Amino acid sequence: MLMPAPEEGTLAKRGALVDALRAIVPGEGVIDDPAALRAFESDGLTAYRQPPMIAVLPSTVEQVSAVLALCHREGVKVVPRGAGTSLSGGALPLADGVLLGLGKFNRVLEIDYGNRAVVVQPGVTNLAVTGAVAAEGFYYAPDPSSQIACTIGGNVAENSGGVHCLKYGLTTNNILGLQMVLMDGTVLRLGGRHLDPGGYDLVGLMTGSEGLLGVITEVTVRILRRPESQRALLVGFPDSESAGDCVARIIGAGIIPAGMEMMDRYAIQAAEAFVEAGYPLDVEALLIIELDGPTVEVDYLVDRIGALCREAGAVSLRASENEAERERFWAGRKAAFPAVGRISPDYYCMDGTIPRHKLPVVLTRMAAMSQRYGLRVANVFHAGDGNLHPLILYDANQPGELERAEEFGAEILKLCVEVGGVLTGEHGVGVEKRDLMGEMFTEIDLNQQQRVKCAFDPEGRLNPGKVFPVLHRCAELGRVHVRKGETRFPDIPRF
Asked: Cβ contacts of residue 319 below 8 Å, gap of 6+?
């Protein structure tokens, strides 16, 4: 995985940069010890590692602004980092870059029940938002499986989803406003508690921008009332294809469950051994379908969906009878990723999205790929919105297995695009999918996206080496034309 070559000039002034950064963030806020920097050398995509040149842990917006302004003046690259749970290498450091950690931004600033909004710092964990408002009967809808650890700032950077995004939307559908700091230290505020801001949707642009446009320092999220009733169904199938067909039948019938997840035999057995959620062990695929709303509606839909599942070939069906049982059903799904560690020393977690009606054909072709590559696949994914998370099982101690797993993963992502899907649903592009962007976008598309980056970060110092397979200089993209060291019409003000 090629990254931007370290700049010798930057490495040469490392000592001076450390001193300047310590003047901004005193105490233990600047880390330059090589052993201590190893803690930041990778995110959740641990196949790639690179300690940063320096790590800085600010605790105020003023410090973030000053750090970025310093790096801007000195021409130093900056990589923002939240909890480090990214699975696409989005927070992979650079050997000549400053890693900007936002873990100290961990406070809930304001709870506004009247506007159904909560203002939080980016280091607040996803689950902590719900915890802050649960006593009043509210919750925050997006719920990635890593919600106990992943942070709101990271959720915004990757546009994270989760089990309930089928009905309630991704992060982008559940945030109202942001405070962010640009590479030159400028502090901006976008959106707010009003529902429909005028002008360009810059909040939407920042959501999913993967740290390439600015550093998020505050987020205003939307909270919802807890539904009157919630019930979950466990539905077993003799094969993954019939489970995929059932998903299409349910959505085709006009029913939008709160969540609809799928697990295959490998994932079912690993999760059951780990959590003892009560999963059937004699099925090849399992759907977990959650319904919420008024009790009478939920009870009606439980029966309706049960009939659709039987028509699709379900061999077992069980509905939760109380809240404890419903939570137990979900506990297995939430723990599925770590549980797979019981059956394989290593796994490579993929993330692609396809049209729902393509699930049967994609699952069939993935099974054939598994045979061809000689690597098992455990499927755990958001079936309702077609967001796949195949876990390719391998052993990093066996020569060539990691490389084979990466080739397998790339073929899965190409298949997603082939059937009308996209390279990522919620994990982001990062470095993992960067070199596959040409499978989905033309050069014209990618150049236009880079022009957006140029508008926010003209020198390309924020998180370089991510998302774009070839990063052009802004001048090459037509932002500023320079000839003989001068721009045309130099007397005209430029912004």
From this structure: 231, 232, 233, 234, 302, 306
Helix axes 240-252, 295-311, angle to 10 degrees: 130
Could you give the CA distance from residue 461 to residue 7 in angstroms, rounded to a whole number? 12
Give the number of other Cβ atoms within 10 Å of residue 297's Cβ: 14
Q: Residue 386: name the closest of 353, 428, 423 by CA.
A: 353
pLDDT at 415: 97
pLDDT of residue 477: 81
Distances (CA, A) of 168 to 112, 230, 259, 267, 397: 20, 14, 9, 25, 41
Show the 3-state SS of 84-122: CCCCCCCCCCCCCEEEEECCCCCCEEEEECCCCEEEECC
Query: What is the structure's pLDDT at 145?
Result: 87
Angle at 316 between CA 312 and CA 317, to 5 degrees: 90
Torsion, Cα 234 235 238 244, to 10 degrees, reads -110
Alpha carbon distance 408, 388 (integer Å):
14
Calculate Rg over the CA atoms of the chain. 23
Which H/E stretch holds residue 453? helix 443-456
Q: Record the pTM.
A: 0.91
Paired residues of 139 in beta bridges? 224
Neighbours of 191 (CB within 10 A): 20
pLDDT for 231: 97
E strand residue ranges, 238-376: 259-264, 285-293, 316-319, 346-349, 352-353
Residues 220-254 have pLDDT tens digits of 999 999 999 999 999 999 998 899 899 999 999 99
Q: Which H or E run contains 81?
A: strand 77-81
Pick left, alpha or beta for residue 278 (phi over 0 → left; psi -120 to 50 → alpha; otherwise beta). Answer: left
Domains and CATH numbers, the chain: 8-101 (3.30.43.10), 108-225 (3.30.465.10), 229-346+355-393 (3.30.70.2190), 439-487 (no CATH)
Query: Locate tokens 């801007």: which residue?
Result: 72
Tell me phi and psi for residue 379, to 5 degrees.
-100, 120
Separation CA 343–CA 325 (nearest Å): 26
Please state, in angstroms and rounded to a whole number, the distance separating the CA atoms of residues 268 and 283: 9
Give dist(CA 340, CA 283) in Å, integer: 17
Region label for 107, one of left (φ > 0), alpha (ψ between -120 and 50) or beta (otherwise): beta
For residue 480, the model assigns a pLDDT of 47
pLDDT score for 492: 45
**Which residues of the chain, if any, have pLDDT below 70?**
478-495
Q: Are 338 and 332 in contact (CB under 8 A)?
A: no
Q: For residue 78, what pLDDT is reported?
A: 98
